[in-house]
Amino acid sequence: MKGALGFIGVFLSFLSDATYGESALKFACGNISHSCMYYCNFCNDIHGAPTMGCLSILSTHLCLRNFESAMASLNSTDWCIWDNVRGLYSNLSLCTEDISDCLLIPWPNPLVEETFVNIHAEFFKDCPTEELSDPPPVIVFALVITPICLIPVMVSLVVLKTKNGDGSS
Q1: Within 13 A of 103's CA, how many CA atoms are on the CB side?
Q2: Which residue from 77, 92, 160 is spatially nearest to 124, judged by alpha carbons?
Q3: CA neighbor of 90 nearest in space, from 109, 72, 106, 66
Q4: Span 57-83, mean pLDDT?
Q5: Most confident of 13-17, 38-42, 64-68
Q6: What is the C-alpha separation between 118 and 116, in angstroms, rounded?
Q7: What is the average pLDDT score of the chain?
Q8: Distance between CA 118 and CA 134 in Å, rounded?
C-alpha cells in the first residue's frame, strides 16, 4: 500500500511540473520523449538513479498490470492459443524494453527474464507442448546394430590388407 501511494504521489507530482520542461536529472535519460522523461524523473525522485529497483516498480505498475488484466479478460482455455495472447505478450515485451531503453538499462536483463519466467509459470504452465519422444524400437535397433556389425568387417579388411607384411597389397 505504501509503495502504491508513493507511486501515485510521484505521478501526481509530474502533473504539477515546476521545472517547466527543464530537466533536473542527475543522470542521462534514454531519449527526450514525454513518457521517457516521466520514467527518468520517477527514478530520480525515488531512487536518485535509474536502478533495477526503479525498473521493477515501473515495469510492474505499467507493463505487468496491463498484461495481467488483459489476460484476466480472456478465458483461461484461450491462454494456450498463441493467436489470442500474441499481441498481449508482444505489448508486454515492448513495454519492458521501452522502459529499459529510457533508463539506459540493457534489455533483456535478469529482472525482465524473471518477469517472463513468472508469467510463463502463472499463465502458460498447463499449456500442452510438443515434446520430443524416442523413435520406435526398430529404428533404435537399426541405428545401434549397424556400427556394431561394421566394426568386425573393418577389422577383417585391415587384417587382410596387411596379411602379407609388406603393406603394398
Answers
A1: 31
A2: 77
A3: 66
A4: 92
A5: 64-68
A6: 5
A7: 82
A8: 30
Position of cell 518477469?
A: 115
Report pLDDT for 63. Answer: 96
Buried-exposed string 22-39: b where 16+ CB fall within 10 A, e elsewhere: eeebeeebbeeeeebbbb
CB count within 10 Å of CB 158 equals: 10
3-class DSSP state for residue 31?
Answer: coil
* Residue 131, pLDDT score: 65
| String of DSSP letters for 57-100 | HHIIIIIIHHHHHHHHHS-GGGGG-HHHHHHHHHHHHHHHHHHH
Q: Cα dihedral sign for 77, 80, 81, 83?
A: positive
Quick one: cell of 92? Answer: 508486454
- In this predicted structure, what is the pLDDT of residue 161? 86
Cell digits of residue 164: 602379407
